[in-house]
Structures are given as structure tokens and as C-alpha cells.
């Protein structure tokens, strides 16, 4: 029976009934088990589109489209409520006239039809009109469906928002205010670690509201920003889950105001579940600078361990390597500014400033990691802030150890260290060499961030074959770099690298280059001392080489407690008389003197001393000077004067010039000068006459030694002259020598004139003293 107050039939309802019937028949032709009540979402979507197209004829120029849409929706909605047993027949008497003629409709088809026809407004109006019990039953029925249909989800959550918070307060006039009020009310609800279903719905509704506002061209920008900012402020205060939805809607992040609000919640954004969402949005080609800055600020505000995780995620993100980075237009200027901070700040002095600098550079790595690492390496090399740079590189180890492909051996830091090495190896800037070596030492000492084996393999060509490929072998830059990485290199490199150092030593001995030999010896001593487990192996290797040079004895002296030293057989060194101790040397000298009684022992040994001194180290010079004094004592008696010893040493140097190709004259004369000064210091009773005799000996050397030693000879003469007690003669000679030093005149004619003038002053002084 039809109620007096019932839903009126009309052309629109007839068209709807026809369309529904046709859609159901089409389904049953495909499968007899299918109908509009079925749960198959795919078939329901197709049927809904069919019905939506067919009912378009219900809208004519003479009818109100809003009125027609409301009637069509009401008829379908009443049908689905009845079909799903949410309401009883008695509760829908108003729709009794149309319900009997319609096929049964299920929620999957209904939601698809609402979405296809754009009936969100009418669906919400109907839900709000229902009693709360029925409204919640509807929301429960469509909850699973709406999770895959954003359009229906927004309808459901808006209705839930109305039910839980807005409906009890009937004092609001706009939907914007309703939303804000509802959210302010829900803030007081206790939330567990997992967000409640009610809160989820409310939050999703907020996101949908934001998106709709941003896409609504009828609203002014200021109106959008004002309300949306209020919405964000309310929501962000009580739940981080909302940020995920904000990040999933790129429209929300296209506006500066949304990023500004999120800047107040950097700790939430750094959460492992949220930060990847933010990064993916920022890495899109359409991302604007405010989103990129939000990522950078989030990274900068995070603690060190979390920054490391962020950098790891970013460096290994496919989007990071495939798409443009987060690099901003002012990156270079900010990087330069931060690098200058390292130069001007002692990072170890303030833990707060150190943490800030570390955070800033982690953020810069988000923009352009390669430029940051290269900038730090260059800073350490040119400026010398090696400790601070090493600390930063260790903090940025995720970036430093990044490889473009897992199989590659070369990481980011290694590539820039190698590039810097190759640039420096061709130069002779000792300051930059020192800075580079110190940087490697700091990194190796504090971490395993440097792939020492990989770097060693790349620089070894400058060390092997006694440094034949090194453009500046006297600088030993490549050897110093090797020594810096040696503590962390693999054990199987120990013996081969020691062998290369020994080859360098052997070459220095053959070239009679005492300076080079002394440096190599220091490297060998340091190399053997790197690890206690290396010492026996290293010394055994040196013993097995069988080098015939006095330097080996000096090396062994460093390890008197090592039993391995006793294993060195005498025959390895029997040809080197200089290796004998003082007693053995005296016995050998006496034996030679007895064998050749008619000859001077010093004359017999002169060729040997010339050879030994030409390639001796500073330590060997001390030994050789003592041996020469012993030989002189056999010739001249036990009291050998300083003048006689220095005169004999000078004759050895002159013999080196005549007969031997000396490898490094500058080093050789330095050793001679040090020996002269040591002898003067050790002799307390040296007379004025002895000093004058020594000056005569040294002046003779000016005309006999190579011109490259001229400046050194003059400096030595000045040192000796200043020890004289006769002030007038001392001042005259010092002025004469200093003028020659300033003139740097070592050409033919100038030196003899200088010697003649100095000897004349000495002779005049002696003559005057004799008259007295």
C-alpha cells in the first residue's frame, strides 16, 4: 500500500529504473550469478558507468539538475539501505512506491555509482539526515570499500566528523569552522601508539578538505592560506600520522604556508616512516624549493645517528641518482661559507659548535654530496684544517663510502683523495704535501673510512722501482702517503712494500746520496715500528737483502733488544770497515799501518773515507769522523787537534769532488758543517790561534768545493768567525763574509778575491800580535 506521503514517480525515476534493470541484465548475460548486489568491484564499476550514462537524459533544460540529482540519489540510497538490512521496510514507507520496482542494490555498486555521478553532496546530506545509529551502520558498511576509493572515503569521513564532533554542537555556520571545532575536540581524546579509526577518518577528511581548497579557484589565496594554516596548526599538535597524508598529497606542499607550518615539526618529519615520504616528494621534478628546504632543515635538525640514516637512504635512493638533486641555487655560496667556518673555528673547543657544523654539512650533502666531499678534501689540502675535516668526513662516512654500483671498488672519498694526490705529486708545494699526508693520517688513525688497499694500489707506481716514476723523488711525497696508510693496509702488502723501501735505500747508497738515504732510513725505521708483529718480519727482510752500506748498522742500532739482530752474519758486512766498533776499527787500522809502515795511514784510507763520506747520513758522519780521528792518532800520536781533524775531513770532501759523483752536495756539506760545529762545541780549550787556523782551512775550501755549496760555506765561516774573541778582527771578517753572502758571487775571480781579502786580514792580525 502506498503511503499518502510517498516518493513521487517521475520521468527521472523511470529512467533510473530502466537503467538499473538494463545494467543488471547485462551482468547476468555475462554471468548468471552476477547482479547489482554483487561484491565484485570491477563489474560494479562498469555497471555504474553504464547507469550514469543512461540517466543523463533525466536532466533537461526545464528541470533543476540539483533537484533531479537529489531524487535519483535518494531512490538508490533508500534501495541499498533496505537491501543491506540496515533499515526495515517500515522505516522506508516514504520510498515504498519505488523500492518494489528496483533491483536489489549492494554497497559496492552504490559507492561506484555515487562516484561516477558525482553525488558526494547528496550522499553527505542523506547521511547527516539519518539517525546516528543508521549513519554509523552505513559508515561501517562502506569502510572497507572506501579505503580504495578516495572519493567515497572523503564522504564517509566527513559524515563521521559530523557524527562524532559537529552534530552535537549546532552552533557553526561553515564547514571550515565545523572541521576546526571537531579537531579541537578530538585533541582531548587519548591516542595510543596506533592512531584510532575515528582519528584516521577525521585526518583523512582534513587532507581531502585541504586538497579541495587548494584546487578551488573561487577562493582567494589568502582565504585558503588562513584557514588551512589553522587546520594544520590544530592537527599537527596531536598526531604525526597526518603528516603522512600531507606528504602524499603534493598539492599541499606546493604552497609556502604548508611548508612553513611543517618547519615547526622537524622532529616528526625525521621519523623513519615519514622522512622517506618527504624525500620522494622533494625529489620529484615538479618539487619546488620550499619542499627541498624542508628536507634540508629536517636533516640539519636531526641527531648525528639519524642524519647518517637519512644520508644512507638518500644516497641509495633510485630517485636521487636518476633525477635532479635537492641542490638549491645558493648552494655554492652556502658551502663556501661553511668551509670558511671550519677555517675560523676550533671544532674541538665547543661540542655545541661542533655538532652544529656537523649538522650543516650533513644537510649540504643532501644537495650535492660530491661537491661537499671534494670541498672538504680541497680545504684540508690548501688550508690545513686536517683534524676538523677528518672529523667531518668520518661523520659523513655514508657519503664517503658511497659507490655508484656495489661491485665498484672506488668510493666517493677514495676518488677525491686519489685526485688530490695526482694533482700534488706533480707539484713541489711542501705545505700542501704536508696537509694531505696529515689528513690521511687523521682519517686512518680515527676510522677505517679510507680504503687503504685501494689507494695503495693506485699510488704504488710512484714507489716501486726505487721511485723511478716519481717526478720529484727527493720530496718523498708518495712514500709519506704510503706510510700514512700503512697501519691499515692488508698484511700481504707488508713484505713487498718493505722490499720497495729497501730498493730505495739501495739506490740512495749507490748514488752516494746521503740525504735521500737518511730519509729512507727514517721511513724504514718507522715502517718496522708500525706494529710489533711486523718488526721481526721487517728486520728479517732487511737482513736478507745483504746491502753493503753503513746505514743498515744505524738502522739495527734502533733495535738492540731484538734477538733477530744477532742473526746478522758478519760476512754480510765484512767488506765495510766503517761498520766496525771503535775497538775493532783501531785494531784494523793498526793492522793496516803495520802492513804498510812506509805510508801514512790516512793517505791509505783517504779513498775509502771519500767514498764513505760522500753517501753518508748525519749519523754515519759522526761514526766516520770518530774513525778518521782514530786513523789520525795512529799517524800523529794520541793528541789529534781539531784543526788537523777538520783539515783531513775537508780534504776528503775535496777528494769527493775530484773522484766521486756525489748525489747531494748540499746534504754532504751540511753534514760537514755540523761536524765542524760539534767539534768546536766539544773543545773547551780551543785557542784564538786554533780558530784562525780553522778559518784558514775553511777558506781554502771556498776555492776547492763546488759552487753550489758557496752559500753554506759562507754561513759556516760566519758561525766560526763569531766565536773569535778578538772583536775587531771578528767584525771585519763578518762584514766581509756577509757582503759576499748578499752578493752571492761564486763565479770565477770573485771567490779568490774573497779568500785573498780574508787571508790578508788574518795575516795582518797575526803580524800585529807577533809584534806585541
Describe the SSE topology:
Layout: H1 11-30, H2 41-54, H3 65-83, H4 96-99, H5 107-117, H6 120-129, H7 132-146, H8 150-166, H9 175-186, H10 197-215, H11 221-236, H12 241-248, H13 256-262, H14 266-269, H15 275-282, H16 289-301, H17 304-315, H18 318-322, H19 331-344, H20 351-367, H21 369-383, H22 386-395, H23 397-400, H24 412-425, H25 430-446, H26 452-459, H27 464-467, H28 477-485, H29 494-510, H30 514-529, H31 532-545, H32 550-556, H33 582-595, H34 601-614, H35 618-636, H36 642-659, H37 665-682, H38 688-702, H39 710-721, H40 727-743, H41 750-771
Helix pairs in contact: 1-2, 2-5, 6-8, 7-8, 8-9, 8-10, 9-11, 10-11, 10-12, 11-13, 15-16, 16-20, 17-20, 19-20, 19-21, 20-21, 21-22, 21-24, 21-25, 22-25, 24-26, 25-28, 29-30, 29-31, 33-35, 34-35, 34-36, 35-36, 36-37, 36-38, 37-39, 38-39, 38-41, 39-40, 40-41
Task: Provide structural commentary.
There is one protein chain. The chain is rod-shaped, with a radius of gyration of 47 Å. The protein is built from 41 helices and no strands. Among the domains are: 1-118, no CATH class; 371-386 and 409-572, no CATH class; 602-616 and 646-771. By secondary structure, it is mainly α.
Amino acid at each position: 500500500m502506498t503511503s499518502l506521503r510517498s516518493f513521487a514517480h517521475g520521468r527521472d525515476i523511470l529512467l533510473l529504473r530502466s537503467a538499473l534493470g538494463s545494467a543488471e541484465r547485462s551482468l547476468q548475460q555475462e554471468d548468471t550469478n552476477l547482479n547489482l548486489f554483487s561484491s565484485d568491484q570491477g563489474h560494479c564499476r562498469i555497471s555504474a558507468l553504464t547507469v550514469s550514462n543512461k540517466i543523463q537524459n533525466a536532466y533537461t533544460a526545464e528541470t533543476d539538475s540539483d533537484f533531479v540529482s537529489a531524487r535519483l540519489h535518494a531512490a538508490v540510497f533508500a534501495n541499498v539501505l533496505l537491501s543491506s538490512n540496515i533499515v526495515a521496510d517500515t522505516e522506508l514507507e516514504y520510498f515504498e512506491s519505488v523500492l518494489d520496482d528496483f533491483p536489489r542494490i549492494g554497497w559496492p555498486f552504490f559507492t561506484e555509482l555515487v562516484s561516477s555521478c558525482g553525488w558526494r553532496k547528496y550522499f553527505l546530506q542523506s547521511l547527516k539526515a539519518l539517525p546516528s545509529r543508521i549513519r554509523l551502520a552505513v559508515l561501517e558498511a562502506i569502510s572497507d570499500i572506501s579505503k580504495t576509493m578516495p572519493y567515497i572515503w572523503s564522504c564517509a569521513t566527513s559524515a563521521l566528523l559530523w557524527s562524532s564532533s559537529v552534530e552535537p554542537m549546532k552552533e557553526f555556520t561553515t564547514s571550515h569552522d565545523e572541521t576546526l571545532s571537531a579537531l579541537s575536540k578530538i585533541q582531548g581524546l587519548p591516542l595510543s601508539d596506533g592512531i584510532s579509526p575515528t582519528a584516521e577518518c577525521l585526518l583523512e577528511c582534513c587532507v581531502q578538505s585541504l586538497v579541495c581548497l587548494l584546487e578551488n579557484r573561487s577562493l582567494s589565496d589568502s582565504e585558503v592560506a588562513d584557514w588551512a594554516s589553522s587546520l594544520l596548526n590544530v592537527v599537527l599538535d596531536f598526531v604525526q600520522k597526518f603528516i603522512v597524508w600531507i606528504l602524499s598529497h603534493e598539492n599541499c606542499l606546493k604552497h609556502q604556508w604548508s611548508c612553513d607550518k611543517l618547519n615547526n615539526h622537524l622532529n616528526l618529519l625525521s621519523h623513519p616512516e615519514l622522512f622517506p615520504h618527504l624525500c620522494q616528494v622533494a625529489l620529484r621534478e615538479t618539487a619546488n624549493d620550499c619542499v627541498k628546504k624542508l628536507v634540508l632543515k629536517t636533516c640539519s635538525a636531526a641527531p648525528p645517528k639519524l642524519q647518517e640514516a637519512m644520508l644512507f637512504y638518500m644516497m641509495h635512493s633510485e630517485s636521487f641518482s636518476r633525477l635532479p638533486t635537492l641542490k638549491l641555487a645558493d648552494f655554492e655560496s652556502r658551502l663556501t661559507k661553511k668551509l670558511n667556518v671550519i677555517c675560523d673555528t676550533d671544532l674541538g673547543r665547543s661540542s655545541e659548535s661542533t655538532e652544529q657544523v656537523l649538522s650543516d654539512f650533513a644537510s649540504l650533502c643532501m644537495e650535492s654530496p660530491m661537491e661537499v666531499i671534494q670541498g672538504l678534501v680541497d680545504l684540508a689540502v690548501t688550508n690545513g684544517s686536517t683534524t676538523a675535516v677528518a672529523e667531518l668526513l668520518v661523520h659523513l662516512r655514508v657519503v664517503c663510502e658511497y659507490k655508484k654500483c656495489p661491485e665498484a671498488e672506488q668510493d666517493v672519498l677514495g676518488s677525491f683523495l686519489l685526485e688530490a694526490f695526482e694533482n700534488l705529486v706533480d707539484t713541489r708545494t711542501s705545505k700542501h704535501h704536508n696537509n694531505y699526508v696529515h689528513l690521511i693520517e687523521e682519517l686512518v688513525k680515527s676510522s677505517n673510512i679510507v680504503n687503504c688497499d685501494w689507494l695503495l694500489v693506485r699510488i704504488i707506481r710512484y714507489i716501486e722501482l726505487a721511485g723511478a716514476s716519481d717526478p720529484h723523488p727527493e720530496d718523498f711525497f708518495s712514500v709519506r702517503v704510503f706510510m700514512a696508510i700503512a697501519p691499515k693496509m692488508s698484511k700481504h702488502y707488508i713484505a713487498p712494500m718493505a722490499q720497495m723501501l729497501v730498493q730505495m735505500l739501495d739506490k740512495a747508497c749507490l748514488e752516494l746520496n746521503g740525504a735521500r738515504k737518511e730519509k729512507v732510513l727514517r721511513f724504514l725505521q718507522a715502517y718496522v715500528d708500525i706494529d710489533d708483529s711486523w718488526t721481526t718480519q721487517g728486520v728479517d727482510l732487511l737482513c736478507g737483502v745483504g746491502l753493503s752500506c753503513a746505514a743498515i748498522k744505524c738502522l739495527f742500532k734502533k733495535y738492540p733488544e731484538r734477538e733477530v739482530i744477532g742473526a746478522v752474519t758478519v760476512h754480510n758486512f765484512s767488506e765495510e770497515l766503517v761498520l766496525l766498533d771503535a775497538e775493532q776499527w783501531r785494531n784494523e787500522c793498526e793492522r793496516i799501518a803495520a802492513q804498510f809502515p812506509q805510508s801514512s795511514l790516512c793517505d791509505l784510507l783517504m779513498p775509502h773515507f771519500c767514498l764513505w763520506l760522500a753517501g753518508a747520513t748525519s749519523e754515519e758522519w759522526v761514526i766516520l769522523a770518530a774513525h778518521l780521528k782514530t786513523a789520525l792518532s795512529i799517524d800523529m800520536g794520541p793528541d789529534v787537534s781539531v784543526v788537523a781533524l777538520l783539515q783531513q775531513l775537508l780534504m776528503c770532501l775535496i777528494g769527493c769532488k775530484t773522484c766521486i759523483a756525489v748525489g747531494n752536495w748540499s746534504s754532504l756539506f751540511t753534514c760537514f758543517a755540523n761536524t765542524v760545529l760539534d767539534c768546536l762545541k766539544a773543545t773547551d780549550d780551543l785557542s784564538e790561534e786554533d780558530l784562525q787556523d780553522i778559518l784558514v782551512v775553511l777558506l781554502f775550501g771556498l776555492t776547492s768545493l763546488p759552487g753550489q755549496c758557496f752559500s753554506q760555506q759562507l754561513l759556516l765561516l760566519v758561525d766560526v768567525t763569531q766565536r773569535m774573541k778578538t772583536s775587531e778582527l771578528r767584525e771585519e771578517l763578518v762584514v766581509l763574509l756577509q757582503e759576499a753572502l748578499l752578493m752571492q758571487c761564486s763565479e770565477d775571480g770573485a771567490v779568490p778575491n774573497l779568500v785573498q781579502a780574508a787571508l790578508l786580514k788574518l795575516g795582518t792580525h797575526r803580524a800585529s800580535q807577533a809584534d806585541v
